[in-house]
UniProtKB/TrEMBL annotation:
It comes from Paradevosia tibetensis. This is Probable nicotinate-nucleotide adenylyltransferase. CDD domains: NMNAT (cd02165). Catalyzes the reversible adenylation of nicotinate mononucleotide (NaMN) to nicotinic acid adenine dinucleotide (NaAD). Residues 5-184 form the Cytidyltransferase-like domain.
C-alpha cells in the first residue's frame, strides 16, 4: 500500500490542502493520503493555534474523501517533531510505502526542521508547488543538498517505491489560499464587529 503523509497544523484546513492531497493521490499513484494534524509546529507562534480537537474535526468535515484519513495521533504519542512521527510509522507499519508530502513553502525552510536530513533519508518526499515559493523551493538548502536524488516529474508515480532519499517537485494547479491569511481575515472580522 502506498500512502502519502501530509502533516501540518492545518490552522485552519482549507481547500488548498485538499487540492494538494487530491493531486498527490493521482500523480503519485497513491492508495491513500493521511493528514497528520500536529499538536503544534515548533517553528511557529502558537498564539493563534486552535485546539487540536477542533482542527481535526474541521479537517474531517472538509476532507470527506474515501481515500483520505485525518488523525491527530501525534499528540496521544507525545510526538513533537516530524522525525519522531515518521520513525514511529515506518517502524510500526513496515509493509507500507510512505511518502512525505509538503508544500514548496515548507521545502524552503525544511533545513530548519529537527533532523531534516534524517527525514529525507527515511522516506521519499513529494514537494508540491505553492504560490510565492515556486522559484525558491528548488534552490533551497534542502533541495540543493538532495539535488542528485530528485526524480523527474514524469517519474512521480515511481516515488512511493523508491529507496530514500528520493524526492519529486510537482508543478500543477495552485491555490492562493493560506491558513495565515484566513486567520488574519477572521481576526479582522472579529475586530470589525
Amino acid at each position: 500500500m502506498k500512502i502519502g503523509l501530509f502533516g501540518g497544523s492545518f490552522n485552519p484546513i482549507h481547500d488548498g490542502h485538499l487540492l494538494v492531497a487530491e493531486q498527490c493521490l493521482q500523480r503519485l499513484g497513491l492508495d491513500a493520503v493521511w493528514f497528520l494534524v500536529s499538536p503544534g509546529n515548533p517553528l511557529k507562534n502558537h498564539d493563534e493555534l486552535a485546539p487540536l480537537r477542533d482542527r481535526v474535526e474541521d479537517a474531517r468535515a472538509l476532507l470527506d474523501h474515501p481515500r483520505i484519513k485525518v488523525t491527530g495521533f501525534e499528540a496521544a504519542h507525545g510526538f513533537r517533531y516530524t522525525y519522531d512521527t515518521l520513525k514511529f510509522l515506518t517502524q510500526t507499519l513496515p509493509d507500507r510505502n510512505f511518502v512525505w508530502i509538503m508544500g514548496a513553502d515548507n521545502m524552503v525552510s525544511f533545513h530548519k526542521w529537527d533532523r531534516w536530513r534524517e527525514i529525507a533519508n527515511m522516506l521519499p518526499m513529494a514537494v508540491y508547488v505553492r504560490p510565492g515559493s515556486s522559484r525558491k523551493a528548488p534552490g533551497s538548502l534542502a533541495a540543493t543538498a538532495f539535488a542528485r536524488y530528485r526524480l523527474d516529474e514524469d517519474d512521480a508515480p515511481l516515488l512511493a517505491t523508491c529507496e530514500p532519499p528520493a524526492w519529486v517537485y510537482l508543478h500543477g494547479i495552485m491555490s492562493g489560499l493560506s491558513s495565515s491569511v484566513i486567520r488574519a481575515q477572521r481576526k479582522d472580522a472579529k475586530i470589525a464587529k
